[in-house]
Design brief:
alpha/beta; 251 residues; 24% strand; single chain; elongated
């Protein structure tokens, strides 16, 4: 069986986690260790009581998540926080988190995989955060009607469309998760159509004024791709079983 150190080293190198700055609290990499051996890999979008319970039930010993355990900073380890840790300890399950490195990765990142699933070819990257561009762009995308049809197939739980842009988009951007920070930068990047996970209500007026098409497909739904891809790659490389732990989050 591979060791925990081997899995962590591979993930760190594959995602370049030490080279990519992230938001405070993201703390990419190994966040919780186990006894040192990995027998099954799991993937989940979020760290939390629900995903940890699913991992324990499935016999997962190395859980890859997108949103990690440490976003809230230093907190007392009591109540639900203690319960979450006890679940991991009892199951001997390690937790590995990758946030922006698993959004911006050009091969197994959320944005790249959404583009691939939609039959689109990424032509550039925009919206740098501390030196790393995190928003993928596509030139000459399909018509608005065709794009929505593809999105509805990819995101069957539903999406919200705000269509104030051209019926034939000129340039499209993909930003998984929260896309509110991208709205002010779209015009400067020549983007008239955005696919994202969630937006603030103010984006409606901004889209109307700027002539944008917005497709809001769910924060969770747009961020299942990267963790699944990384877990599958690791499983194939190290000869282990793997499982995606779907919490059914509708947000």
């Amino acid at each position: 069986m591979p060791t925990l150190d081997e899995l962590v080293s591979h993930c760190n190198a594959r995602l370049h986690v030490r080279e990519i700055a992230d938001f405070p609290g993201a703390f990419n990499g190994l966040q919780f260790s186990n006894s040192g051996t990995v027998t099954k890999i799991g993937a989940a979008v979020d760290a939390g009581a629900g995903p940890f319970a699913l991992a324990a039930k499935a016999g997962v010993s190395f859980l890859i998540v997108h949103h990690g355990m440490l976003w809230d900073g230093a907190q007392p380890l009591n109540g639900p926080r203690r319960d979450r840790l006890k679940t991991l300890l009892d199951a001997d399950c390690a937790v590995y988190s990758a946030h922006l490195p698993l959004d911006a990765h050009p091969e197994i990142g959320n944005n790249a995989l959404i583009a691939r699933a939609l039959g689109l070819t990424i032509t550039g990257w925009e919206l740098p955060y501390e030196g790393t561009a995190i928003m993928a762009t596509v030139a000459a995308p399909p018509s608005r009607t065709e794009l929505r049809a593809r999105l509805e197939k990819l995101f069957p739980r539903g999406l919200t469309a705000v269509a104030f842009g051209p019926a034939q988009p000129r340039k499209l951007a993909i930003l998984s998760g929260s896309g509110s920070s991208a709205i002010p930068h779209l015009a400067g990047a020549g983007v008239d159509t955005l696919i994202t996970g969630e937006l603030k209500q103010s984006a409606f007026n901004a889209a109307q004024e700027a002539g944008l098409n917005l497709y809001i497909c769910g924060h969770y739904a747009t961020e299942v791709f990267g963790v699944r891809a990384l877990a599958q790659e690791c499983a194939e490389r190290f000869g282990l079983p793997w499982e995606f732990l779907d919490t059914g989050c509708p947000l």
